[in-house]
Amino acid sequence: MLAAAALALTGCADSAASGSGSDSGAKIVVTTTQVGDFTRELLGDDAGITQLLSAGQSAHSFDPSAAQLLALTEADALVVNGAGLESWLDDAVKASGFDGELIDASSGIELFGTDDHEAHADEGAAEEHADEAEEHGEEAEHTEDEHGEGNPHIWTDPELAEHMVENITDGLAAVPGIDAATVESNESAYLDKLSALDDWIEENVAKVPVEQRLLVTNHDAFTYFIAAYDLTFVGSVIPSFDDNAEPSAAEIDELVAKIRETGVKAVFSEASISPKAAETIATESGVKVYSGENALYGDSLGAAGTDGETYLSSQEHNARLILESWGVEPSALPAVLQG
Question: What pLDDT does residue 139 have?
Answer without folding.
Answer: 38
